[in-house]
Structure formats: C-alpha cells, structure tokens
Amino acid sequence: MDIHFYKYHGLGNDYIIINIDENKLPDNFRTKSLLARKLCQRHFSIGSDGILFAQSPTSDQFDYQMQIFNPDGSEAEMCGNGIRMFVKYLYTHNIKKKKYYKIETKAGLIVPELLFENGEIVGIKVNMGTPRLLRSQIPMIGPEGKVINEEFIVDNEVVHITCVNMGNPHCIVFVDDINEIDINLGRKIEIDKKFPDRINVEFVQILNKKEIKIRVWERGVGETLACGTGACASVVAAILNSKIENKAIVHLKGGELEIFWENRTDVYMTGPAEEVFEGTIHIII
User: Fold this and answer.
1) Per-residue model confidence (pLDDT) at position 285
2) What residues contact residue 156 under an 8 Å CB cut-off, 6+ apart?
3) Would residue 119 count as lying in a domain?
4) Which of 27, 94, 147, 206 is deepest in the core (most CB within 10 A)?
C-alpha cells in the first residue's frame, strides 16, 4: 500500500501527518497503532515523535478531526505542538482555509488561531482550555484533591511533584538546574503504578518571574525537543507554586513557546510550526 504523508515539526518535536480520507485507510485503532510503530522508527523508516491522523470530524460542530499516536502504538489525547502543525497543514494544503479552527481531539474541542503578517503565517495561537487539577482528573491514585508540591518517592529518591492535566496528564518536577538531572527519572515516573494511564514528565528550572526552562519526557516516546501541553502544564504548575507570573516564555531544547494562563481559566499557547517535507511510502499492513 502506498501512503501519502507530510512531515512537520514544532520546535523540533516532529510528526508525520497522514490523511485517512485521502489515503482511504481503514479507520480503526489497530491500523493506526501499527502505522505508528512502523513509520515512527528513526533510522528504519520516516522517523518521528508520533503520527497525526487527519480525517473528517464526527459532527459538523468541528472543522476536522485529529488523532495522535505515539511511536509505541499508544494513542494520546492531545498534543500542543501537534495541533499547531495540524492546522498549518490544513491551511497550507487547502484542505480547509480558515483563521480560526475547531479541531476535534480525544481531549475535546481545541480552537487554534493562525497569526499572519503580510499574508504569511508567523505563528499559531491555541486556546488549550482550562487545566484540570484534581487527582482523579490527572488521573493519579490517592486521596482526592490537588497535587501541588507533593512528596513523591521514585527509585528511593524523594522529589516534589505538581500534576496538571492539559488534555493529557503531566507531572512537573522543579529543579535547580535541568542540565544536572538524570532524564531517565522521567521514565520511572511515567510508569509508576500511581499513574494508571502513565504520565508525561517535565523537569522545570525557574529562570525569573517571566521565564522558565524545561526538559520533557513524553509518555510513550521518551525525551523530546519540545512539548506544547507540557509547556502549558509547566507554566500552570509554576503559577500554582507562586514561582512565576501568569504569562511566561518557556525555553525548550527545540525553541521557545509563549504561554499565558488567563485569570486561572483558559491557557493560551503561541508558537511556530514548520513543514519539513512530503512524500509517499510503500508499506504492507
């Protein structure tokens, strides 16, 4: 089978975009999971941090539907960098040309806005919705309440965590210097039995009241150069711990995102997305 695809990245967090309708692919979990495991392999295939599957929405209240699959074949609820790539793909390739989009995701409705200068797209601003903070909403096993600066034992080491769900689950650990941390601690936290759905992990260094620096361990992926939902969750966690103001620049390995938590309601993320290449791959599924 020949599959037409596009390769995009947002701050180095790279994804393959495959249009289910265009390629006439079976719309089922097994096929999408198999494609993710095969195509995301670096050195052996296209290589990416995941696949964004584009297809017609389930109702006319949405413009398009986006599904996210990780390299291990698991499905993610949302992807902040991915949603920016997704709407740029829709606009650039004339799938649906709009300034504001209503995108259907497993996490619900997400509304991105294309930002223009002299007719060119210079960024994408996304309303990421209101963060969910209760333990059952993360989800995390334990007594109900918010998980803010809570002691957590992993590999016989005590760390303090704050947990935020931004459409997908995140565990934030504040550190003095992210260059000194063992990133594999993220893997151990990800698979800890207290997180029944596993969890994304961000190590966060506070630079000042308006800037933070993070390293990301993504659930089902490993360390990535950037994570949009992770950047949002890290800013929310830093505000909850009274470390920064409500708008901050987040420095990731792949670049910068601007995050704004408006009146502790909706979180807004602004950043770039770039097309890398397009192609056709022959694969047996």
Assistant:
1) 75
2) none
3) no
4) 147
Catalytic residue among 40, 79, 163, 171, which? 79
Q: What is the mean pLDDT of the chain?
A: 96
- Kindly report the number of other CB atoms within 10 A of residue 63's CB atom: 18
Same domain, 15 and 97: yes
Q: Is residue 38 part of a domain?
A: yes
Tell me if residue 79 is catalytic.
yes
Phi and psi at residue 231, in whole multiples of 5°? Answer: -65, -45
**For residue 5, what is the enclosing H or E element?**
strand 2-10
Domain that holds residue 10: 2-111+274-282
Amino acid identity of residue 120, one-letter, is: E
110-153 pLDDT, tens digit each? 999 999 999 999 999 999 999 999 999 999 999 999 999 999 99
Active site residue 227: yes
What percent of the chain stands above pLDDT 90? Answer: 97
Task: Report phi then psi at 146, rounded to 5.
Answer: -85, 145
- Among 40, 163, 227, 232, the active-site one is 227
Instruction: Give yes or no: residues 182 and 86 share one domain.
Output: no
Is pLDDT larger for residue 192 or for residue 156? 192
The model's pTM is: 0.93
- CA separation (Å) from 47 to 6, 151, 162? 12, 37, 32
Q: Give me the DSSP letters along 185-207.
A: HHHHHHT-TT-TT--EEEEEEEE
Q: Are 45 and 148 contained in the same domain?
A: no
CATH at residue 175: 3.10.310.10
